Amino acid sequence: MIIFDTLDNLELYQGISDKILGLITVMDRSLPYDQGPGRYTCPEDDKIVYEIDAYPTTREGRLEMPSEREYSVEIVLEGESVTSVGSDNVFVMAPGRFLLIKGETGVKRRMTRNIDKSVKSVIFRF
After folding, report:
1. Could you say which of 46, 90, 122, 123 would form a disulfide bridge with 32 (CB–CB 3.0 to 4.6 Å)?
2. Sheet containing 97-102: order of strands
3. Are 121 and 80 in contact (CB under 8 A)?
4. What torsion do the CA atoms of 74, 81, 93, 103 make, to the nearest 10 degrees?
5. How far apart are CA 79 and CA 115, in angstroms?
6. pLDDT tens digits, residue range 59-78?
7. CB neighbours of 30 closer than 8 A, spacing ≥ 6?
8. Residue 22 DSSP label
9. pLDDT at 105
């Protein structure tokens, strides 16, 4: 499952998992915008973990192999980055957008579109 949409529409996807509401609560409270890089737990639901990272994009990016059973929601807070899922799906991640993935392996994050940029992002996993 791959969903790429704007944060304004995140509430439409609450039926996918009961954890989406906790993610929305964290984002509505602007916690990731105010917190520095690190691993955090949602105050209302300790099964929702999120990681904030700040990094420069590169042409190579970084390959990750998420669990096929795990949901992963990537949100870029500052800057712009490219994420590819599998060999056919490429997404330009910018503030105001999210990418929800489940059951997909071979996710490449932190890539640049043309010029390396500084990025701050958050990834929720549940």
Report:
1. 122
2. 2-6, 97-102, 71-78, 118-125, 45-56, 38-42
3. no
4. -40
5. 11
6. 989 998 877 788 999 999 99
7. none
8. H
9. 77
Backbone angles phi, psi at 95, to 5 degrees: -55, 140
What tokens appear for 5 in the block? Answer: 């949409």
Q: Please name the amino acid found at residue 67.
A: S
3-state SS record for 29-92:
CCHHHHCCCEEEEECCEEEEEEEEEEEECECCCEEECCCCCCEEEEEEEECCEEEEECCCEEEE
Quick one: how far is CA 99 from the chain centroid? Answer: 6
Residue reference for tokens 């957008």: 97
- Architecture (CATH level 2) of domain 2-125: Sandwich (2.60)
**pTM for this entry:** 0.90
